[in-house]
From TrEMBL:
Alphabetized Pfam families for the sequence: GTP-bdg_M, GTP-bdg_N, MMR_HSR1
Subunit structure of this chain's protein: Monomer. Associates with the 50S ribosomal subunit.
Keywords of the record: Coiled coil, Cytoplasm, GTP-binding, Hydrolase, Magnesium, Metal-binding, Nucleotide-binding
General function of this protein: GTPase that associates with the 50S ribosomal subunit and may have a role during protein synthesis or ribosome biogenesis.
Family per record: Belongs to the TRAFAC class OBG-HflX-like GTPase superfamily. HflX GTPase family.
PANTHER family: GTP-BINDING PROTEIN 6-RELATED, GTP-BINDING PROTEIN HFLX
All copies of domain Hflx-type G, residue ranges: 199-366
Organism in which the protein naturally occurs: Azotobacter bryophylli
Main location group: cytoplasm
Name of the protein in question: GTPase HflX
Coiled-coil ranges (or none): 165-192
PROSITE patterns: G_HFLX
Length: 433
């Protein structure tokens, strides 16, 4: 790349700080799952009970010496911290431990780089990596000082470090421009779906909650699903037919995680806009996870960052097959609307209830009925057809059109008001049971 660092490897020692502050506390089990998802072999997990992080190494000098001995004895090539390291802390640790050091953000970035499949996903990962790297350029080119004068030696007068930073800025700007085009293309696709009156639903949730497995079970598709963190990175759209609602589009999105790096949230904003523009969010929750309440809180935090926390949310408690004594069910709020559905995406139990709950929530503001339009309402009839809202048509003995229509009530009220009609009076007189 732009600078020299120790070579990376697969054998890793993990370092976890046991902090007193609940906000800064990380889960060591989740940390080990992240490392395994990255493909590393865990040699040892070192737990450091430290209440006041060191500015130089994050951990104390005694623990640093202990780590150095462990790295040498086990021939370890990589030390991973379950916390965010400052650039100086990372450099100091690499100098002392004589191996590559990675922090939590760098680990997640590496997993994302492995999972990216589409051109857009790779661009988003590269953007996050470059922005992370831009603060961590080290003076690895010690043999290059500021360029000198003389034949063959004249140059722009930059140090190699300054050249690296300039090249990074140029590349970051190029990627941002490309992602801006992706964002506009996605917005055009969303406008097309809105014009066709196709509701959009977005699957959100903590990583490895079972979103992709649920999508496959609902839509009979073959989206990649695995029991690992961040198995899904690239957004996936699938079509689903619901009774009384018609076709809807379901988007599977990247999973969230505790303390998701802000660089990733920013880099994946084009993808996460599918979530912030959805008509309904399906919050998939691992019902078998002991820390599920904390995971729910983390998901709501990220939804707040992308402006999607105010959207209608249906909670889906998944992995019912791993629990005993709980049957598939719909739990409703005080108004009788579905609030929570218990399902098992693996064996299919409760999926019919889930479809019912989604249809209820999406069809809440949907008008489905038969309208009797006398011959003088030809223009209104044409507008219903133009919106693809007509499901069927017959004619009575008087020559009136009997239209079976399905469209949002907001759209119906807009059409009627444009014709100078009051929706309540018109529907009372012209709706057939």
């Amino acid at each position: 790349m732009f600078f020299e660092r120790p070579d990376g490897g697969e054998r890793a020692v993990l370092v976890h700080l046991e902090a007193q502050d609940p906000e800064a506390r990380e889960d060591p089990q989740e940390f080990q799952e992240l490392v395994r998802s990255a493909g590393a072999e865990v040699v040892a997990l070192v737990v450091v009970p430290r209440h006041q992080p060191s500015a130089k190494y994050l951990i104390g000098t005694g623990k640093v010496e202990e780590l150095h001995d462990l790295v040498g004895a086990e021939k370890v090539e990589l030390v991973i911290f379950n916390h965010v390291l400052t650039p100086s802390q990372q450099r100091n640790l690499e100098r002392v431990l004589e191996c590559r050091v990675l922090d939590r953000t760098g680990l997640i970035l590496d997993i994302f780089a492995q999972r990216a499949r589409t051109h857009e996903g790779k661009l988003q990962v590269e953007l996050a990596q470059l922005e992370h790297m831009s603060t961590r350029l080290v003076r690895g080119w010690t043999h290059l000082e500021r360029q000198k004068g003389g034949i063959g030696l004249r140059g722009p007068g930059e140090t190699q470090l300054e050249t690296d930073r300039r090249l990074l800025r140029v590349r970051i700007r190029q990627i941002r421009q490309r992602l801006e085009k992706v964002r506009s293309q996605r917005e055009q696709a969303r406008r097309g779906r809105r014009r066709a009156d196709i509701p959009s639903v977005s699957l959100v949730g903590y990583t490895n909650a079972g979103k992709s497995t649920l999508l496959n079970a609902l839509t009979a598709s073959d989206v990649y699903a695995a029991n690992q963190l961040f198995a899904t990175l690239d957004p996936t759209l699938r079509r689903l037919e619901l009774e009384d609602v018609g076709p809807i589009v379901i988007a599977d999105t990247v999973g969230f995680i505790r303390h998701l790096p802000h660089k990733l949230v920013e880099a994946f904003r084009a993808t996460l806009e599918e979530t912030s523009n959805a008509d309904l969010l399906l919050h998939v929750i691992n019902a078998h996870e002991p820390e599920r309440e904390a995971q729910i809180e983390q998901v709501m935090t990220v939804l707040g960052e992308i402006g999607a926390d105010s959207l209608p949310i249906l909670e889906i408690y998944n992995k019912l097959d791993m629990l005993e004594g709980i049957e598939p069910q719909i739990q409703r709020n005080a108004e009788g609307k579905p609030q929570r559905v218990w399902v098992s995406a693996r064996d299919g139990r409760g999926l019919d209830l889930l479809r019912q709950a989604i249809a209820e929530l999406l069809g809440d503001d949907l008008f489905v009925g038969t309208l009797r339009l006398p011959q003088g309402f030809g223009r209104l009839r044409a507008q219903f057809f133009a919106l693809n809202a007509v499901q069927g048509e017959e004619h009575d003995e008087e020559g009136s059109s009997l239209l079976v229509v399905r469209l949002p009530r907001v759209e119906l009220n807009r059409l009627l008001s444009r014709e100078g009609l009051r929706s309540d009076e018109f529907l009372e007189q012209h709706t057939l049971q």
